[in-house]
Structures are given as structure tokens and as C-alpha cells.
Recover the amino acids of this structure.
């Protein structure tokens, strides 16, 4: 299973559901997606609950399309990323991406007295942070906003503090994420994703940020359950069950919130979830 | 194109680290630099319903009149929704608040005095150790220029006149002392101001209260100057 909360919650829900409906014990083990794909290929791993697209397109091509060793469930949970505004930022008129290019509006985001607002664009090590920098350049708001990079925990604590004191803040965000359960946030409106307007240079080029342009919203991401093709042949009933699992983005956010904010353990959360959703699990297992 | 989850694979989601170790070394021992307050703070005047500048002069006047800091900087429980666990300290230098996260979507909020340019760094550290009535050792550059500091070159014993005040929390990164502290002060009127060159100061009652509640190992998040995204109080 992955190292993030919703992946761990899902893994434990699948484990308990499979034990309940098919009488098969499963071991839950934390593995990165790359290692999980290698394990799925070798038959050492049977299921990986959250495989993100397009993040792992290379792995999917190799193991799903070319080798046929791994199967991705048909259903997927949609994901989203972009910019968010706290209630005070939205109230100050920061609602669309064009608003961010208006210095008169973004002045309320100035926290250090230099006359320019600040916006958190992600953690220094995230590749998405570079793309946010590209987007800021392409849209034009880099001209009047200082783009701040900081670890996610620091940025989320800044959001908490901003909301607690009714201060405006605009920041990079993604969903499903528990921050949407913690705070009433507004997503900054953008033109829909247009592949023709996304020209991202290879990230191994040191100048890839300046060579890239991206002046539309991010494309929609998805994540799927993956399972070994051999496992699916051996247990077609469980494969069919996995194909039926249909978590919504809201449910995934709730998982993240339960584990991250309420500090529930993944096994405890999974047990409660299954107890409260017995009919749902029965439906998934219906052959 | 790389998107959301690959960054989590890299293990960077949790446990972010302080980014500018060089700054920490540079600023070592500067916590108690000369007082030279700048007017960066505002407080809300409920009587006039206006935000007013809160500078060194006004702070002195207010404290002389009321024997305490303005209400915003007094210890109080406030609503504070966060994913951070109870016991975490969040330092918001821009607003001169230190939050101690409590269960149930609340935090104890304390007023703080910070460095003239904020804390000088942002990131995540922990409380490595604490001390009651800590000893203060002035940094060599202060010893060199200040005869009063030179007197205590070998360390000033803890006590009511000690600039570190009644308690100190020593901030560590891993096993290493960052040389930054959250400490008390003998100048309580400086709470709410940008006065020193790095450390966080609290009035003695508050640091005693915080010290009594904090566990060794507690997570401390310092919000980035300019990333806290608000100004004044």
C-alpha cells in the first residue's frame, strides 16, 4: 500500500472486505508505487490500491500495456489541483486566475510589507512546484506576486493560522485533501485544461521551467486500483470485486481527514468504515 | 507531466525540514541583539474600530498605563483548526502569535516578540530540551562591543534579571541545537514587536505556562516570513 493516508485506508478496507467476503487473508505492507509494480509483476504483490495517472504513465505502459502483468481497474477516482483562496481572499475579490494578475487585488496578500503579495506554490522538492512557477509566468501573475516555496506542513499551518485570524491567503492545493474538510476554501477559477497550451519541457533540463509554458488549468488526474494479472486469473471473483470498488473523491478526502486530522489508525478506520457500509461492500462482492 | 502523488512517493509530505541551516549558523547567538524596534505591527482598537500601528513607543506607553500587553497578545484559547496533533507549536512571527495546538479544534495563543526580520528562517524543528531560569551566554560579538555583556562572557546565571527570562525551550533539528530558543523576557512590553534578531520571546508568565505544557520532542513549525500571508495583528 502507499504511504499516504487514503491509500492506507483503502488498503485496509480492501483487506478486511476480502477477508469478510472471500475468506482470504491479506497482508498489508507499505510500498512505493514503483516497488509495488515490480512486486505485482513478480507475483509478490497482489493489489496496489491507488495508482495515479498521469503520474505513473511510464509504469503503466511497461507493466499494464506492454507486459500485461498488471491490470488497472476500470473505475477511477478523479483528482484535482490548482490554486485555493481562504474566505477572506475570495471576499477580497481573488476568485479567478485573472484576479491574481491585478496588483490592486493581490496587495491584500502582502505579508512582508514589500508591496507584493505572496502565494505558496508547493514544496521545494515537488515537480509540481516547478509547473506552478511555469503557470505563474505564463498567466502573468508572477509579475506581481512573490512565489513562495515551503514544506507542505509549514504551508498548511500557515493556512490554519490565516483562517484562524481571518486573513487572506492564496495557495497551491490539490484534492482529495483533508484541508478541504478543515477549512472553507474557494478554488481559483481557470480556463479549462488545453493540452495545446501545456508545453512542459523535460524536467531533467536545468532550464525546464523557463523553457515551459502552461496557461490553462491542470488536466484532471485519476487514480485506480491495480492488481496482478496472474492474481486476477487465480481469483476472478476478487478481481471482479476490485473492479466494482467505487470510492468518491469525497470519501477519499474523508479517509485522509480521519487519518491525518482525527489520528485514526488505518485498521481501525477500515473496520468502522466496513461496519458502516456493509451493503456497499456486499454490492461490490456481488458476482 | 508529473502531478500529485509522485511527490508523496519521495517521502516529502511529512516531516519537512528547516531549509536554511546557513542562516541559523549565521544568526547563532543573536537572539538578544540590541533593541531597535520597527513599526511592523498593528492592533485592532475596539473603541475606534480601526487598526492602529503598534510600535515601540506605543508599546511602552500602553504597558506603562495598563501593566500588561494589549489583549491580542495576552494568553487565550482560540479556535484553531489544523491537522497538526495537540502539543504542536506553530509560530507566526508576522502576527506575533505562538499557538500551542489543543484537542478539539482549539489552540492556546500567546503573544510573542520576534526578530527584526522575523525568525530568519522557516521550517520544522522540535523542542530538544528545556530549562528553568536558564543561563545566558552572550555571543562573542556582543561581548566584544558591549562591556555589560563582557561581564557575562562566561555565562550569566539564571534569575529575574537574566534576559532569557524564567524558562527557555531549545529548538533542535534532529539531534542538533539550532541555537534558536523560545524564552522569557525581562521586557514584557516588547511582546508584539519586532525587537531582536531571531529568537522568540514571551513574557515570563506565558513562558512558564508554555513550559509546563510542552513535552520534549514536541513539533515546532515556524511559518515562513512572507508565507504566513498576513501582516500585523
Amino acid at each position: 500500500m502507499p504511504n499516504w493516508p487514503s491509500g492506507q485506508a483503502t488498503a485496509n478496507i480492501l483487506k478486511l472486505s476480502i477477508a469478510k467476503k472471500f475468506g482470504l487473508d491479506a497482508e498489508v505492507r507499505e510500498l512505493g508505487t514503483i516497488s509495488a509494480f515490480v512486486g505485482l509483476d513478480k507475483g509478490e504483490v497482489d493489489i496496489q490500491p491507488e495508482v495515479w495517472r498521469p503520474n505513473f504513465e511510464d509504469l503503466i505502459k511497461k507493466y499494464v500495456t506492454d507486459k500485461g502483468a498488471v491490470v488497472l481497474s476500470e473505475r477511477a477516482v478523479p483528482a484535482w489541483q490548482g490554486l485555493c483562496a481562504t474566505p477572506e481572499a475570495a471576499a477580497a475579490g481573488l476568485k479567478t486566475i485573472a484576479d491574481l494578475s491585478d496588483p490592486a487585488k493581490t496587495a491584500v496578500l502582502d505579508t512582508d510589507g514589500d508591496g507584493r503579495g505572496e502565494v505558496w506554490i508547493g514544496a521545494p522538492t515537488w515537480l509540481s512546484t516547478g509547473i506552478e512557477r511555469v503557470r505563474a509566468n505564463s498567466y502573468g501573475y508572477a509579475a506581481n506576486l512573490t512565489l513562495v516555496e515551503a514544506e507542505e506542513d509549514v504551508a498548511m499551518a500557515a493556512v490554519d493560522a490565516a483562517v484562524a485570524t481571518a486573513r487572506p491567503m492564496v495557495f497551491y492545493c490539490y484534492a482529495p485533501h483533508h484541508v478541504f474538510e478543515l477549512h472553507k476554501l474557494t478554488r481559483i477559477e481557470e480556463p479549462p485544461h488545453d493540452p495545446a497550451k501545456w508545453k512542459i519541457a523535460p524536467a531533467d533540463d536545468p532550464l525546464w521551467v523557463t523553457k515551459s509554458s502552461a496557461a490553462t488549468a491542470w488536466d484532471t488526474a485519476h487514480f485506480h486500483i491495480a492488481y496482478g494479472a496472474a492474481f486476477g486469473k487465480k481469483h476472478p471473483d476478487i478481481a471482479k470485486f476490485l473492479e466494482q470498488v467505487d470510492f468518491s473523491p469525497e470519501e477519499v478526502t474523508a479517509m485522509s481527514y480521519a487519518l491525518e486530522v482525527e489520528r485514526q489508525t488505518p485498521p481501525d478506520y477500515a473496520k468502522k468504515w466496513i461496519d458502516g457500509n456493509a451493503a456497499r461492500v456486499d454490492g461490490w462482492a456481488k458476482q | 507531466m508529473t502531478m500529485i502523488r509522485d511527490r508523496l512517493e519521495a517521502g516529502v509530505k511529512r516531516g519537512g525540514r528547516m531549509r536554511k541551516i546557513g542562516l541559523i549558523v549565521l544568526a547563532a547567538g543573536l537572539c538578544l541583539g540590541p533593541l531597535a524596534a520597527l513599526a511592523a505591527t498593528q492592533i485592532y482598537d475596539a473603541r475606534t474600530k480601526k487598526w492602529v500601528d503598534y510600535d515601540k513607543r506605543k508599546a511602552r506607553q500602553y504597558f506603562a498605563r495598563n501593566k500588561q500587553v494589549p489583549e491580542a497578545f495576552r494568553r487565550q484559547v482560540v479556535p484553531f483548526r489544523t491537522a497538526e496533533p495537540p502539543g504542536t507549536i506553530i509560530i507566526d512571527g508576522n502576527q506575533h502569535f505562538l499557538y500551542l495546538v489543543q484537542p478539539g479544534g482549539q489552540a492556546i495563543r500567546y503573544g510573542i516578540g520576534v526578530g527584526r526580520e522575523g525568525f530568519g528562517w522557516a521550517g520544522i524543528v522540535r523542542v530538544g530540551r528545556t530549562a528553568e531560569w536558564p543561563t545566558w551566554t552572550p555571543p562573542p560579538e556582543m561581548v566584544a562591543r558591549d562591556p555589560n555583556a563582557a561581564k557575562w562572557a562566561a555565562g550569566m546565571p539564571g534569575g529575574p534579571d537574566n534576559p532569557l527570562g524564567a524558562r527557555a525551550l531549545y529548538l533542535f533539528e534532529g539531534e542538533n541545537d539550532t541555537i534558536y530558543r523560545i524564552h522569557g523576557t525581562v521586557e514584557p512590553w516588547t511582546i508584539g514587536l519586532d525587537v531582536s534578531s531571531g529568537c522568540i520571546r514571551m513574557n515570563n508568565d506565558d513562558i512558564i505556562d508554555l513550559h509546563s505544557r510542552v513535552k520534549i520532542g514536541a513539533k515546532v513549525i515556524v511559518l515562513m516570513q512572507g508565507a504566513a500571508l498576513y501582516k500585523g495583528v
